[in-house]
Predict the 3D structure of the following.
Amino acid sequence: MPRKSRAPAWAHRRIDVTAFVRPAVPILLACLIGGCTGERVADTPSPAGDTTPVVSGPVVRLTGTVEAVQTTAVSVPRLEGPATPLLIVGLVKSGTRVERGDVLVEFDRQQQERNAFDRRAELVNIRSEIGKKVAEQAALEATDLTELTAAEHDVARAELEVRKNELIAPIDAEKNTLALEQARARHAQLATTYTLKRTAAEADLRILDIRRARAERALGYAERNAELMITRAPFSGLVVMKRLYRNGQLVEVAEGDEVWPGTAVIDIVDTSHMRVRAKVNQADAGRVAAGQRVKIGLDGFPELVFDGTIDTVAPLATVSQLSPTVRTLAAIVSIDGAHPQLLPDLTAWIDVPIADAGVARSARAEVPR
């Protein structure tokens, strides 16, 4: 006797699929409309534990990169004289927080100290030469003055002898006259020679003074070069190590490296004041303006949300590198407060609230394509 097959009870029931689809249609339509308009409603809680929505209502979502308001690059010092590579003998670690005046980089200063020692010795020798020259010139001047005084006395004596010419023989009178002329000529020659010798002595001292000034400048350059071998932090901040292209790859600067003058080795970043450099699509230009309050979040740390203000929006759009038809505006957004995890080069999002969604859509529609 053949057996009758029994089908499961659920197989005889008719499943009404529309009962599941109909409630989901409005939700799908709302999601599609919201995605097309580019408006978002963010409800991520703030890091302080506040459960209120980050931004209530429609927003414009911007993306950008975190950067410091105050930052400076520490470069290898440029020294006086020919450019030569410098050896790094001391280097602060990347990520270290430093205070104003802390040592960042120390270069090998042996060559500079040796140059300073040589310049100092040269200056001492020149000063001793000047002292010796002054003493010699003083002795020569005294000798010349003695000879000049003696010549004056000879002239006076010869004049007295000439007064006797009327009382003596003519030949003796002629001798007295010739002696007077000779004494006067010698006195004039000594006076002229004395003046020339003093001028020459002053020139010799001037040459030594020029050499001394040059040696002093060289010593000052050498001492300043030695001082430049230690680079200190200009302000308090975070140390970010630079990378150098070496042997076909980018590597961080390390102790023992030889670097050329002018090469940047460290960035000092003041993390107490940060901002975001964002890009605004040209279609959203009418919705973003300076002075608007915004919410800022970090992609790497979703739990961190900050308040901020749009500082500036560039008046001119720039062409995208991917497509010439896409244009964006640069915007600078300042961040309120600080956080240890708020560091430069982090990607961030910015929610700009829109007061009236309808006005926002119409403003976007009026932007020429």
User: Anything to note?
Assistant: The longest strand covers residues 59-68. The chain has three domains: 37-70+271-365, 71-108+231-269, 111-228. The chain is about 40% helix and 25% strand. Residues 84 and 268 are 25 Å apart (CA to CA).
